[in-house]
What we know:
Chain A is of the alpha+beta class. Chain A is 33% helix and 22% strand. Chain B folds into two domains: 3-145 and 281-339, Ribonuclease Z/Hydroxyacylglutathione hydrolase-like (Metallo-beta-lactamase, Chain A, 4-Layer Sandwich); 151-277, 3-Layer(aba) Sandwich (Rossmann fold), CATH 3.40.50. Chain B is of the alpha/beta class. Chain B has helices at residues 53-63, 151-164, 179-189, 203-211, 265-270, 285-295, 307-316, and strands at residues 8-10, 13-16, 21-23, 31-33, 46-51, 68-73, 79-82, 85-91, 99-105, 108-112, 134-139, 170-173, 196-198, 219-221, 234-237, 254-258, 275-277, 299-305, 320-323.
Amino acid sequence: MNRFAELLDRLAYEPGRNNKLRLMTDYFRLTSDPERGWALAALTGSLTFTHAKAGLIRSLIAERTDPVLFELSYDYVGDLSETVALMWPTHFPSPLVGEGREGGSEDRGKASTNVRHLTTPTPNPSPQGGGELSLTTVIETLTTLGKAQLPQQLARWLDALDETGRWALIKLVTGGLRIGVSARLAKAAVAALADEDAQEIELIWPGLAPPYRELFAWLEGRTKKPASADPAPFRPPMLAHALDDADLQNLNASEFMAEWKWDGIRVQAVAGHHDNKHGGHLIGRLYSRTGEDISKSFPDLLDALRLPGAIDGELLIMRDRRVQSFNVLQQRLNRKTVTPKLLAEFPAHLRAYDLLANGDEDLRGVPFAERRARLEDFVARLGDQRVDLSPMVGFASWDALTAARKDPVAAGADAAAVEGVMLKRRDAPYLPGRPKGPWWKWKRDPFIIDAVLMYAQRGHGKRSSFYSDYTFGVWKNGEAGDELVPVGKAYFGFTDEELLQIDRFVRRNTTERFGPVREVVHDADQGLVLEVAFEGLQRSTRHKSGLAMRFPRINRLRWDKPPGEADRLERLETMIARIEQGQERAP
Amino acid sequence: MRPEDILVPTPAGVCCKRGGFHIDPTRPVERALITHAHSDHARTGHGAVLATQETLDLMRLRYGENFAGSTQAVRYGESITLDGATVTFHPAGHVLGSAQIAVMANGLRVVASGDYKNVGDPTCAPFELVPCDVFITEATFGLPVFRHSDADAEIAKLLHSVALFAERAHLIGAYSLGKAQRVIALLRQAGYHAPVYLHGAMESITYYYANRGIALGELRPVRGTTKPELAGTVTLCPPSALKEVWTRRFPEPLTAFASGWMRVRARARQYGVELPLVISDHADWNGLTATIAATGAGEIWVTHGQEDALVHWCGTRGLKARPLDIVGYGDEEDGDGANDGGEEQ
C-alpha cells in the first residue's frame, strides 16, 4: 500500500504526461504480482467494490479527535479526506501528557535530559502484527466485506498507515483517484515495460481481468501474448492530415471523394458473436478514438448494434432529426451517471463514415469506394434510425468543394455540427495511424478574436521558469465603465521566440502574485493583446463570462494593438447566438 | 512574584525589565538577546547583542561587520547575570547556533524557546529540555495536521526521483540558513556522494557550516557551469529562485521544496513544485505538545504561528495559556518561503 500511495502522491503533483508515464512504468517494473495488477486496476477504474461515503469518513474522525482541533484543521486544509488523513491519531507515547502532569519548579532537577526520547513516534503498527498492509489485501477485503464491517475495517487500516498511505486509502475507498491519469495513460505505462504500443494492450484488454498476471507475464517475456478473446475488438483508427489551400493544388479532384466532417466524437461501434459464430449472443461495444470502451455511457446506442461488424463513425446528439452542436453533446459527455432523463434529452446517434468489418470479413484492405458501398448496404440492413450514413458531398472541381465547405447549409448539411470536409482517396485501404496522402481533413476557418492578457501561470519541466499558460479577457460594460472579463485560457500556438517575449512582458508588467500565477497589467492603454483562435463556443455556468471556448490557442501577438481596441464580450455573444441558431459563422 | 515581573511582551518583543534586555526584538533596542540568526528573530541595529558564537557569526555573514554596537558570545549552559536576572542559553535544535533562552529571578524560571525542533539534525546540537515555570513556545506548525515525516524517508524519495529522472536537474528550494545545509547533510548520510550545487545566495552560509566541521561533502557553485554538466545533478537554492529565470540554465529542471508546509497539498500546489519534501526545522504538532508537557511549565505563552489550536490544546490539559501576538515573527524562514530574497535577482 505504501508504494502505491507514494506513486499516487507523485502522480498527483506531476504535471507532465511523459513523466507520469515514467513514474508508473517504474512502479510496474519494481512491484510484483499481484500488487501491481491491483494498482493497474485502480488506475484504470476497473475495480468493482462499493465505495464508502464521505459521511463515513467524517464520523470516523469525529469519534477520534477534539472537535475544535478538527474544525481548525479542516478550515486550514480545506479538504475533508486530506484533513482526516493528516490528523488521524496514531499511537503516540506521551508519558508526561495527561493526568499525572508534573509540577513546575519542584521537579526541575528531574528531567534535564534530552526530550527526544519522549517524542519520537513509534513506528506504525503493522496490520496483523507482521508484514506491511498491501493494496492486494485492501482490495480483496473490500470486495468481500459487508457494509456493516466497513467502518471498523477502515479504521484499522488507517491506524496502520502513514499520512500518504491514509490519503491514498481514502481516495481508493471513496472512489475516484483524480490524479490526472487516464486509463489509457496507465495502459501506455504498462506497455512501456516491453516497448509495446498501448494499442496492443487495448486490443487484448477486454479479455483480461485484475490482477492481470498474464498481461505482465507476456510483457516480461515469460509467456506468449494473451489472446484477444474479444468478439467485438477495437481496431486502430485511420486518421487524416490537415489540409491547407496550397496542398489542394497538388491533388487531383477526380481521385477523391468528400464527406462532411461532423463535430462530435469519433467512435468505433463494433458487434460480434460471443463463443461461436451463430449460437452465441451478440456483444456490442462502443470505443473512443483511443480505444477506450465507452459502452457504459451510451446504452441507448448499444441497442442499435444488431448486426456483426465494425462501423467507424461520429457520435452525435440528434433532436428532431437535426444534428446538435458539440456544445450539446458535451453536456451529455460531462455526466457521470446515465439517467433515463439524460437519455431522453440527449439521444445518442451514430453517423457512419466507414465499414471496417462486415460479420467476420475484414474490409480494411478494400478500397474506400468499395467500403463505402458496403457501408451503405450495411446501414440499410441495420434499418435503425439511430444509425445513419454520413452523406457524401458531390463536387466536380475543387472550386465547387470550396464553395460547399464555405456554406454547408446551402450544400444540405446541419451547419452547427459541421467542422469542415473530409477528402478520401477512392482507392485507399483503411490504414491505422496517420498515413500522409490518402485522407485529408479540411477544417473550416477558426473563430478569431483579439483578447487581452490578464493572468499568466508558470509551466513545468522545459517550461518551468516560463510564464506559459495565459488567461485572457475581453471588454464588457462594468459598474465603473469598461472592464475585462476572462474568457479563456491558452498554453500553445506560440513559437519559442514568442514565448520568451511574452515571458519577459509578464515579468516586467506584474501587478500581483498568487502562488505560481501572476496578474499582469491590463487596462485600456497598457497590456498585451493576443489574437486567439478557437474552434467553437459554448455557454458555461462555470465561467464568469458565461462562455467557454473550444481549443483556444494563441494565433498571433498583437504588440501593435492598444488593449482598449480588443474585442468585446458582445461579439462573442453574437457568435454563440449564431452558432445556436445553426447559422453561418460570424464574420 | 509573577512571571510578568521577569518577562513581559511588548510590541518590540519580549522584554526583561529587571535585566534591561529584549529577546529577539523586532525593532532596534539597547540590549538584545538573540535565539538564532533567522532574520525575523535576528535584526540589525541593536546596541549590544548577546548570542551564541554561531549566531553572531551568521549575523555577521548576513548583515556585515557593523550589525550591532557590540557583541558578546555565550556558550550553551553558561550562566550570565544581567542586572536583576540570570540567563542561560540551551540548544534549541532549530539551526546551527540556535538557542532557547532561560531567564531566572527569585527562583522563577521562564524559557523563551525561539524556534525549535525536537528531532535529530546532523547540522546542529540537539534540543535540550529545560524544565521551567513558564514556557514561551512558537506555534508555526501548531495544528494536528502537521506531523512531519521522517526526514530520511523524504530524502529517499528525492534520491529515487534523481535516479528515475537521471537526465534532469533537481532543484531543491530550501531556506538558505539551516534547511539547505540540513538537506545536504542528510543527502550525504543517505550515501549521495556526487557534488551538490549551490545557488549564489546559499554559498557563504553553507561554506560556514562546512568550516564548522559539518560533513557536507563536495560543494560547487552553479555559477560558471554549463547546461549539459548540470544534467542529473542536485542543486540547493532559495525557494523564490525556483520561479526565476535563473532556472533556465538547468536541463529540464524538476522542482522540489523542502518545508513543513509541503504537508498540505493545497500549499504545495501554490508553490507549483513537482516534488514536495516534508522536511521542517520546526517542531510538529506532536513535538510542540510533547515538549510543552515535558517542560513541566504551568503557564504557556504562544508567540507565532497557529496559536489558537495550541492554546486550545493547553486548555484541555489544564495548562494556563495565552497568545502573545508579537508581530514580525515567521515573516522570513519557511514561515513564508515566498518572501525569501526577492524575486528578480
